[in-house]
Specification:
elongated, four-stranded mixed beta sheet, about 425 residues, binds uridine-diphosphate-N-acetylglucosamine, UDP-n-acetylglucosamine1-carboxyvinyl-transferase, Chain, alpha/beta
Length: about 425
């Protein structure tokens, strides 16, 4: 809830087991793509996070009937024949992934109006690649009164589209529109993230014809209609990475269940170079640390490179590691905002353009700090775990957007973490 805070006592060594649910960045896109097929779609392995509820509200306003059962980690989406075509600003501003309804709506209805999400705490985040792709598929797109209005009353036509940058959101929107276009679409320099592959596989199960998922060139042959299906969301690789960095930073030992380590090869290799002992288990991995970590250098890049969403956890680990580390952020322009909060905890970090250089110190020093986005929030909680004394992290609602039962899971790992009003 808005106004909630985490109260964290430092000095923890996180030990025990955690279970990871479905990926936020997958499930939101699956929900949006369900709009492509009238009838009942069932999604499983759905995480209990605030963003899923916002997307559910958006789909309800578009005319769908949703049944959310977080205990069974399942959502049923009943999509009507006749949908509304407008996604309002009050929801889009809360959930940037709302933009993912643009492709499905214009493909199915020939018209979509989606509010522009505006900037957020990690950068300006344009939509030009999404729009360029839809225009190349034959949509007429204009920007009016804070809304993107896309129209293709005679349907979309396949096209050859090259992205300037392998944007995750643009790849997803273009792919979700091209599946119902007439003819063949070739999308080059496409994003290769596991979330994109998950969405593609969901679309294939609905009857779409897609080749090349997980490669830079995705080829789509349009079909005239899609049918609803049942699909399990992939595990959240960013949550897995968060627990892995938390284990190493707190010199702990965490067994992470229900995860797919092949989605995290680069981050796990980096943790090994920091000194982590990582073994695979039946349904996941065990991450153990027996000594203070060694600082690492990383550069964020599109998948399979080091994910930008794990960058705050590297800076946090480097802050208490042995030696100096450099983090280079290549994906989002303002992703170092949270470093100012880390400085309040005594970290020695210098930001210069898109580099953050850290000089490791043995312990951080507790203080009140403010979370500005999901990952920064979780990073600050981990930083507070390696500070001396009691820290308060304001902005728990950001963390709720991506981490189901975060405080409860940390407590189960032996941390003294409370949620306070
Ligand atoms: C998604 C993830 C986010 C992750 C990011 C990169 C979701 C809900 N969010 O965000 O957690 O950090 O991928 O892995 O899935 N860009 C443009 N024009 C565009 C589109 C993107 O300039 O039309 C720029 C962005 O500003 C950014 C970069 O491209 O600098 C990458 O953005 P993108 O891959 O699209 O990220 P998202 O899909 O927004």
């Amino acid at each position: 809830m808005l106004g909630d805070k985490f109260q964290v006592l430092g000095g923890a060594h996180l030990r025990g087991d955690v279970s990871v649910s479905g990926a936020k960045n997958s499930v939101l896109k699956l929900m949006a793509a369900a709009l492509l097929a009238p009838g009942k779609t069932e999604l499983t392995n759905v995480p209990h996070i605030a963003d899923v509820e916002i997307m559910a509200e958006l789909l309800t306003r578009l005319g769908c009937t949703l049944t959310l059962d977080f205990e069974r980690e399942t959502i049923l989406i009943d999509v009507p024949e006749k949908l509304e075509h407008r996604a309002d600003y009050d929801l889009v501003r809360k959930l940037r992934a709302s933009i993912n309804v643009l492709g499905p709506l214009v493909a199915r209805l020939g018209k979509a109006e989606v509010a522009l999400p505006g900037g957020d705490a990690i950068g300006s985040r344009g939509l030009d690649y999404h729009i360029k792709g839809l225009v190349e598929l034959g949509a007429k797109v204009r920007n009016e009164h804070g809304y993107i209005i896309a129209e293709a009353h005679d349907g979309l036509n396949g096209a050859e589209i090259v992205l300037d940058f392998p944007s995750v959101g643009a790849t997803e929107n273009i792919m979700s529109a091209a599946v119902l276009a007439t003819g063949r679409t070739i999308l080059d320099n496409a994003a290769r993230e596991p979330d994109v592959v998950d969405l593609g596989q969901f679309l294939i199960a609905m009857g779409a014809d897609i080749q090349g998922l997980g490669t830079p060139t995705i080829t789509i042959h349009g079909v005239s209609s899609l049918k609803p299906t049942k699909h399990a969301t992939i595990p959240d690789r960013i949550v897995v990475g968060t627990w892995a960095f938390a284990a190493v930073t707190t010199v702990g030992d965490i067994t992470i269940h229900r995860c797919n380590p092949s989605h995290l090869e680069v981050p796990l290799e980096k943790l090994v170079s920091a000194g982590a002992l990582i073994t695979t288990t039946e349904d996941g991995i065990r991450v153990r640390m027996e000594r203070r970590p060694k600082a690492i250098d990383i550069s964020t890049l599109p998948y399979p490179g080091f994910p930008t969403d794990l960058q705050p956890f590297v800076i946090t680990m480097n802050a208490i590691a042995e030696g100096d580390g450099i983090v280079t952020e290549n994906v989002f322009e303002s992703r170092f905002v949270f470093v100012n909060e880390l400085l309040r905890l005594g970290a020695q970090v210098r930001v210069d353009g898109h580099h953050a250089a850290t000089r490791g110190i043995a312990n951080l020093s507790s203080a009140p700090v403010i979370a500005t986005d999901i990952r920064a929030g979780a990073g600050l909680v981990i930083a507070a775990l390696v500070a001396d004394g009691l820290s308060i992290i304001e902005g728990a609602e950001h963390v709720d957007r991506g981490y189901p039962y975060f405080a409860e899971q940390l407590s189960a790992l032996g941390a003294d973490v409370k949620r306070i009003k």
